[in-house]
Amino acid sequence: MQKKLESHFLLLFLFFVSSSLGFPWSQNKQFNQAKNYEGSSDLIDLQYHMGPVLASPINLYIIWYGHWNQNHQATIRDFLYSLSSSSPYPSVADWWRTVRLYTDQTGSNITGSIVISGEFYDSSYSHGGYLSRLAIQSVIKTAMNSHPRPLPLNPHNGLYLVLTSADVQVQDFCRAVCGFHYFTFPTVVGVTVPYAWVGYSGTQCPGQCAYPFAWSKYSGKPPPVANGGNNIMKAPNGDAGVDGMISVIAHELAEVSSNPLVNAWYAGDDPTSPTEIADLCLGVYGTGGGGGYTGEVYRDYWGDGYNVNGVKGRRFLVQWVWNPAKRRCFGPNALD
Ligand SMILES: *[C@@H]1O[C@H](CO)[C@@H](O)[C@H](O)[C@H]1NC(C)=O
C-alpha cells in the first residue's frame, strides 16, 4: 500500500519535470556535456531501470495543432517516413539503428518500424492558443473523441505526436524547452500511452530551438563552422523552423522509444530529472561536435547543412544519440 502511494507521488513528481529537450547552446552545462560525450566516456552511468521500451512496430499518430503550412507538413512527414525506409547511406534509418541498440529485459530491441497510422488536424485550436503541459494530453483526448474521423485510442503500440504551429504558445516553450515526451494519464485520456510534443520555433524562438540554422541574438555570435567561418548553416528543406523541428522530433522519438514510461533507459540517479539517450548528445551532429560546434556535417552546393539522407531525395540534419556499445555519441555520418 505504501509502495503504491509512493509510486503515485513519484508519478506526480515526474509529471512536472517530464523529460524535455532544452537548448543545445544556451546551457553551458549541457554544452560541456555534449562536448565531453562525443569522445568515448566511461563516466556516463546510462542505466536500464527495467521498464519497457517501444519494441513493437510503432503506430504513430500525428496531431497538427493550429494553422499549418502544407510544405512544412510534407517535410515532417517525409522525415517520419524516412525512419523506416531505405535511402542512400547515411540515411535517417541508419541514424535510427543506434536507437535500435536499446533493449528491454526480455532482450527485445526497439522497433525499426514506425508507420504514420493516422493524422488529426486540430485547426480550430481546441484548447486555445496557449497550452500548459497537461493540456497537451487534453489535445490528444480531443483528437480521440472527434467526430468524424477520431484518432484511434491505441494502448498497445500507439505513439502520439502533437505538433503545434508557429502561433501557439506552450508552457516552457522557448524559455526552457523545444519539445518533451511523456505518457498520458488514465484520468485525462483514459489509458496510458506515450506521447511527444514539439513546437514550431521558426517565428517564436529559432535561435533557441532551430539551432544550428539560427543563432540566438543574445549569444552574440553564430555557431563556428569547420572552416573557421561563422556563417549560419542553411536549412536543407528551406525553412529553419521546420528543419530545426526535425532534429527535435528525432530527439524526442529516440527518447520516448527508449524511455516511454520514464523507467527504462536514462542516466543519473534522479528519476525526476532523467538524462536520456539524446540529452547526452545535445548539439552534436557529427564527429568533433559539442561546445557550440555541430561537428563534421555535409554541406550541399548551396551551403545547406545535413547529415542524413531521407526519402524523395530529401536531406535532414539530426542530432546524434548515445551509442551504448561504443559508449559515445554516434551517428551514421561519423568519420571514425
Ligand atoms: C539489439 O540490441 C543488441 C544489444 O544492443 C545489439 O547487439 C543488436 O545488434 C540489436 N539488434 C538490432 C536489430 O538492432
Automatic annotation (TrEMBL):
**Location in or out of the cell:** Secreted, Extracellular space, Apoplast
Chief location: secreted
The record ties this protein, via InterPro entries, to:
EXORDIUM-like
Coiled-coil-forming residues are: none
Q: What is this protein called?
A: Protein EXORDIUM-like 7
Q: Domain of life, per the record?
A: Eukaryota
Family statement drawn from the similarity comment of this UniProt entry: Belongs to the EXORDIUM family.
> What does UniProt give as the signal peptide span?
1-22
One Pfam annotation reads Phi_1
Instruction: List keywords of the entry alphabetically.
Output: Apoplast, Secreted, Signal
